[in-house]
């Protein structure tokens, strides 16, 4: 595996545009993005990005998604403080999925778990395999 770049923000708009133009957004203008902890390989979450979210992520080095439920940009950590700093953004072979290698601050899941992938089949039952590290009330002040 190659080492991610030291400075993930890409200042040059033409350089950002080359990646943006290579992405095959779906009919809704979205592309799935998997967030993975850069140094451990831990898969943290899957979220969606539109062109503006990818553009902002590349320009700032802080991961921004598109919230389908809110219908707008969602800057990871804007309400919880649990930010994702981008270290590398990779496009898959078909151009229709992204992999964001990130430095996760705190937990990634809105349930207070490190990863959103905390449910698995165990003994024929869907089981929680990871406990929350922090309560959602503490994360979001509710």
TrEMBL record:
Zn(2+) binds at residues 93, 109, 116. GO terms for molecular function: magnesium ion binding; phosphoribosyl-AMP cyclohydrolase activity; phosphoribosyl-ATP diphosphatase activity; zinc ion binding. Keywords: Amino-acid biosynthesis, Cytoplasm, Histidine biosynthesis, Hydrolase, Magnesium, Metal-binding, Zinc. Mg(2+) binds at residues 92, 94, 96. Pathway: Amino-acid biosynthesis; L-histidine biosynthesis; L-histidine from 5-phospho-alpha-D-ribose 1-diphosphate: step 3/9; Amino-acid biosynthesis; L-histidine biosynthesis; L-histidine from 5-phospho-alpha-D-ribose 1-diphosphate: step 2/9. It comes from the Bacteria. InterPro entries: PRA-CH, PRib_AMP_CycHydrolase_dom, PRib_AMP_CycHydrolase_sf. Binds 1 zinc ion per subunit. Binds 1 Mg(2+) ion per subunit. GO terms for cellular component: cytoplasm. Pfam families: PRA-CH. Residues 45-118 form the Phosphoribosyl-AMP cyclohydrolase domain. GO terms for biological process: L-histidine biosynthetic process. It is found in: Cytoplasm. Homodimer. Catalyzes the hydrolysis of the adenine ring of phosphoribosyl-AMP. Belongs to the PRA-CH family. In the N-terminal section; belongs to the PRA-CH family. This is Phosphoribosyl-AMP cyclohydrolase. It comes from Roseicella aquatilis.
